[in-house]
């Protein structure tokens, strides 16, 4: 017996060599279909793609590992760039946020991760709350889930979007105190220290609360948070470590402050104006709108009264803002930001966006654009030789109707992550990973 398997009996078995024949590849870069393609994957990678009918790819491959995709579509795995797997899974509303222990949350997170994989998300970017421990558990095969890119704790100022104390809570909180999914930091010195500490503890990027938010009790949406000096300190830390900062910002003022100081990503951005969108395009910044969160928060009465009023305001403007940003040339990514009981609606973001964007624009947001945001553009987001074998088998063309990705049970026949079939709804595709 392999001794490493004795120590870690959950270690995943090496990937089988799989060959898909007669596939129609969905290419989000060119916005085209590549027909009659044969695709060979092994050791987690796409090793060969041929379109000239050459049968050499199947040589030496067992029959059950040659899968005929005639009439089916092979699409890159999806990437959700704004999730919070740690925020009150299994609770009906946000009132549970202050009291939920990290242990309770952690035990429930595998369910959230598996459900995301089931929907076709092979990678996710957690914008606050997910730990290195859960990321490594997925990588090691302890639990199935999408590959994770994590922010660790988000950084917030006192009284900012990450500070969950109400106005009658007079308890002082000192530097770096954790509040929900955030750490409270004030002044450049604490910003340096705790940005560095997040990186030390495995953060792939740094998330800051650069403006007011919906779910926080004592700030307003139009507040600008953090001073220039504080943001500069955090940007310096991230840059020195070869990564980037992304900011929770809704208003033009908050967005402009952040991007002028070197912040690379903007989360939400619902209230952006044209001037600011143009600045973002010029600086090659990324915008990750999260519209479904606002739709569902309203439908499910998720927020307390003060949050609900703020939510209405940003929901109305968010769709128009996203369209304007895309038209201005901003790289827009797919995000959802669903909390608590709302994760089931993750794929509905595709339908919400389809009222203002084309299927290609939306598919790019969840594949190539997202891959660039997580700095994996050479590895993720495309069905291409040398790329990770993160693939979806679909029975309809998403470039024709993107909302098929929202009807998962009907249209997403298989989800392959790292060259292993993680989910199958089709008898021709055997599952490699036990749930
Ligand atoms: Zn968020």
UniProtKB/TrEMBL annotation:
Superkingdom field: Eukaryota
GO molecular function, one term: hydrolase activity, acting on carbon-nitrogen (but not peptide) bonds
Ranges for domain Amidohydrolase-related: 73-421
Descriptive protein name: Amidohydrolase-related domain-containing protein
